[in-house]
């Protein structure tokens, strides 16, 4: 299907037949939406997004077809890493509202059958956290041992530096403490000391605090880096997995149904370890290895990068699920690719050096794809049909642009564009008060790119995506099925079956910007008829001969195979 065929795609209606959000493994059928509260909607006209604003926008999120929201950190913080530097784990950042506002948001989200997970940062705190302040000031404080101190800043020298553009060491000298402290990220984010059981207790207490409010789960940040050990790269250590099991056991016992989603940016064999061999660590892990390879496959017009990585992903436990994404609030991470692949990605997707940061590319989806609607559509066909639950990043559904002239990763965290009015309808404040300027360039500016106008136009990407999501939710095989690649000779087309019980879906994606045809060996399904799920049109019955399909530029088909 492509945008030009949109009229045939509007017939389906209703909520789909999967009873999502009621089952214990609801996350397997979920469509996630990542929200940056500061950037979403400003409810009190101070120029900063907040929970009152977000609550007002819940019907929009519901209509998109989303059934789980993931919130970036909303805790009090000096915001030197946009909230991933938590100063107080038990409250809401005053810019975003109060605990009461949060609770009301949660209540209304649940009323709409939307679940909510939030970021939980366990690896490190802000240097403004009271725990760290006490630790540095008094060597006898019980908090001293909450952090990792050393007189010798050459310890653990095999650990890589992650924020390469800012940091030169994983140790920083604190003149007050008279010692160096360990940090894997910014120097203002001291790592917690997981060797100290009190740290475990404290973090479980934090989890309880939020889960008692009815929260549905956590996206646990920076999980591979919890422990340090001399002679290792200090990532994925066995003790780190022990803590993950402890956290899982704790929430399973006290709050069954809670989702734990791991941010483990690792190679396939290491990332799958976070599901736990017995399915006893995280329910979900982001599919970091797949993400850059979807971009590679589309630019190279070759299915190999995507197919190879999926075929090489070890099997995951039955209760586990991958989390699929194209973009998020960070740079498009190129940590888990070879040097050659990274060079390719930089050449193709980051021509201006400003687009690069650390080992990645700080751009939003539409500018990355040069606003090529068809190429973006094919990426979404992959996103919604390859194994796992998809996450959308706020603003990408309307084709928002970025601002590479803002510092750090702020250029992909600009205010949501609701209307063509002042401040993009994001805030009623004086424009100079906004936490960050709105995108106003001639291509992606809010005057043209906004929810209001996208909603009005039947053929907008927003409306197209809503329908795609609705169809995806109707077929359980996309969410829970087994994927089997077919291998037609034409490598510009990626073709696979998603099978769940007797539901068999056939997906055909043309990665090329030109028309293609494929001959697919479908003998095992001789006698079946492919039904195009967007139009309900039957295609010719499958026989013993290769099944021939032609695809327009970046076109795709989702077929349901029906007997007879
Ligand atoms: C991963 C988060 O996604 C990123 O935004 C943050 O800077 C680092 N963790 C450090 O907390
Ligand atoms: Ca506000």
Explain this structure.
The chain has helices at 37-40, 51-56, 58-64, 99-111, 130-137, 197-211, 238-254, 268-271, 290-300, 304-312, 339-349, 365-368, 373-385, 451-456, 461-474, 476-480, and strands at 32-35, 68-71, 115-121, 149-150, 171-174, 179-182, 217-221, 259-262, 284-286, 321-325, 332-333, 356-357, 360-361, 389-393, 482-486, 493-500, 503-510, 516-520, 528-532, 547-551, 556-563. It is an alpha/beta fold and 564 residues long. The longest helix is centred in the middle third of the chain and has 17 residues, at 238-254. It is globular and about 80 Å long. The protein starts with 31 loop residues before the first strand and ends with a strand. The relative contact order is 0.12. Residues 2-20 have low confidence and may be disordered. Bound molecules: 1-deoxynojirimycin and calcium ion. The site of calcium ion has 6 residues, from loops.
Topology (elements, then pairings):
Blueprint: E1 32-35, H1 37-40, H2 51-56, H3 58-64, E2 68-71, H4 99-111, E3 115-121, H5 130-137, E4 149-150, E5 171-174, E6 179-182, H6 197-211, E7 217-221, H7 238-254, E8 259-262, H8 268-271, E9 284-286, H9 290-300, H10 304-312, E10 321-325, E11 332-333, H11 339-349, E12 356-357, E13 360-361, H12 365-368, H13 373-385, E14 389-393, H14 451-456, H15 461-474, H16 476-480, E15 482-486, E16 493-500, E17 503-510, E18 516-520, E19 528-532, E20 547-551, E21 556-563
Parallel strand pairs: 1-2, 1-14, 2-3, 3-7, 7-8, 8-9, 9-10, 10-14
Antiparallel strand pairs: 4-6, 5-6, 11-13, 12-13, 15-16, 16-17, 17-21, 18-20, 19-21
Helix pairs in contact: 6-7, 9-10, 9-11, 13-15
The chain binds 1-deoxynojirimycin (NOJ) and calcium ion.
């Amino acid at each position: 299907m492509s945008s030009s065929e949109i009229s045939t795609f509007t017939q389906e209606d209703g909520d789909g037949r999967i009873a999502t959000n009621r089952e214990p493994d609801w996350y397997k059928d979920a469509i996630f939406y990542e929200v940056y509260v500061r950037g979403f909607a400003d409810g009190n006209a101070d120029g900063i997004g907040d929970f009152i604003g977000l609550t007002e926008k819940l019907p929009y999120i519901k209509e998109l077809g989303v059934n789980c929201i993931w919130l970036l950190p909303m805790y009090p913080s000096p915001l030197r890493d946009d909230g991933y530097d938590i100063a107080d784990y038990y409250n809401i950042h005053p810019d975003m509202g109060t605990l009461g506002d949060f609770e009301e948001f949660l209540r209304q989200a649940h009323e709409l059958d939307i679940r909510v997970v939030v970021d939980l940062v366990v690896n490190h705190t802000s240097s403004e956290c009271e725990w760290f302040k006490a630790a540095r000031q008094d060597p006898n404080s019980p908090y001293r041992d909450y952090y990792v101190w050393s007189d010798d800043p050459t310890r653990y020298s095999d650990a890589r530096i992650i924020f390469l553009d800012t940091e030169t060491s994983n140790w920083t000298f604190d003149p007050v403490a008279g010692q160096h402290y360990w940090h894997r990220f910014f120097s203002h984010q001291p790592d917690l000391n997981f060797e100290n059981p009190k740290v475990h207790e404290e973090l479980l207490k934090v989890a309880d605090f939020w889960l008692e409010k009815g929260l549905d789960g956590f996206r646990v940040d920076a999980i591979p880096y919890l422990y340090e050990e001399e002679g290792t790269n200090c990532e994925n250590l066995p003790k780190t997995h022990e803590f993950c099991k402890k956290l899982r056991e704790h929430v399973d016992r006290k709050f069954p149904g809670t989702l734990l989603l791991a941010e483990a940016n690792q190679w396939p064999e290491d990332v799958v370890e976070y599901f736990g061999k017995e399915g006893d660590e995280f329910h979900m892990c982001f599919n970091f290895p797949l993400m850059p390879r979807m971009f590679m496959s589309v630019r190279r017009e070759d299915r190999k990068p995507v197919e190879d990585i999926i075929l090489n992903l070890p099997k995951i436990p039955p209760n586990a699920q991958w989390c699929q994404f194209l973009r998020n609030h960070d740079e498009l991470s190129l940590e888990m690719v070879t040097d050659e692949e990274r060079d390719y990605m930089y050449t193709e997707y980051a021509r201006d050096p400003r687009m690069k940061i650390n080992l990645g590319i700080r751009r939003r989806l539409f500018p990355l794809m040069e606003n090529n609607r068809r190429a973006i559509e094919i990426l979404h066909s992959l996103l919604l049909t390859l194994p796992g639950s998809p996450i959308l990043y706020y603003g990408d559904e309307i084709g928002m642009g970025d601002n590479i002239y803002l510092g750090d990763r702020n250029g992909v965290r600009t205010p949501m564009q609701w209307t063509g009015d002042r401040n993009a309808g994001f805030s009623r404040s004086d424009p100079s008060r906004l936490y960050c300027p709105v995108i106003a360039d001639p291509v992606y500016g809010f005057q043209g790119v906004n929810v209001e106008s996208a909603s009005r136009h039947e053929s907008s990407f927003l409306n197209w995506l809503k329908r795609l999501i609705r169809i995806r939710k109707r077929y359980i095989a996309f969410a829970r099925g087994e994927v089997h690649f077919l291998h037609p000779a034409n490598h510009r087309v990626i073709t696979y079956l998603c099978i769940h019980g007797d539901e068999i879906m056939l997906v055909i994606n043309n990665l090329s910007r030109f028309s293609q045809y494929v001959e697919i060996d479908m003998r095992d399904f001789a006698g079946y008829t492919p039904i195009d799920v967007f139009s309900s049109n039957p295609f010719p019955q499958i026989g013993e001969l290769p099944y021939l399909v032609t695809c327009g530029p970046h076109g795709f088909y989702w077929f349901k195979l029906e007997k007879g």
